[in-house]
Amino acid sequence: MAAPAGRRLWGRRTITYFSHDPQSGFFAPSKFCAYVMMGRSGGGSPPGAWPGGMDLPTYASIPADAPLFDGARARRHLTVGLGMQTSSENRRGNLIEPFERWLRPLRDHVTVHPGGPVFIHLRTQR
Predict the structure, then answer these.
(1) Hey, which of 4, 46, 118, 121 would disulfide with 20, CB 3.0 to 4.6 Å?
(2) Assigned domain for 45 exists
(3) What Cα–Cα distance (Å) separates residue 62 from each residue in 32, 67, 101?
(4) In a domain? residue 119
(5) Number of structural domains the chain divides into
(6) DSSP class per residue in 21-65
(7) What pTM did the predictor assign?
């Protein structure tokens, strides 16, 4: 979303669940993190994308009502499948300041749910 083309693809979405990567310090909507592209032809990822990872054009092209692209399923994969933890109370903990810094340049495009963000993170974080 750093580029205008990415912001156009994203539009405006309201997000509750944000995954956190402690190594990069980045946050992303949990549905973005829980899905990977399968069967990508051409061998290789676009610049800036992790191999086999989701990219913004693919994410934006998936219909919101597609059964596979389900937020509850994404959270289950991250928490049960990958052993991450969901913490709404973490909003007041050590992730809220880094989250606010990450969100600041994206605030016109990423709308946080009125109830506040819920973080999905590694269990070792508090």
Answers:
(1) 121
(2) no
(3) 11, 10, 28
(4) no
(5) 1
(6) -TTT--EEEHHHHH----S-SSSS--TTPPTT---HHHHHHS-TT
(7) 0.73
**Residue ranges making up the domain that contains 85:** 4-37+52-111
- For residues 72 and 99, which has the higher predicted lDDT (pLDDT)? 99
Residue 74 in any domain: the answer is yes
pLDDT digits (tens, 9 = 90+) for 84-125: 888 776 555 688 889 999 899 888 888 899 988 988 887 664
Token output for 6: 């990415």
Burial class (CB in 10 A: 0-12, 13-18, 19+), 86: middle
**Residue 120 counted as domain residue:** no
pLDDT in tens, 47-59: 544 555 677 787 7
pLDDT at 92: 57
**Distance in angstroms (rounded) separating the CA atoms of residues 121 and 116:** 16
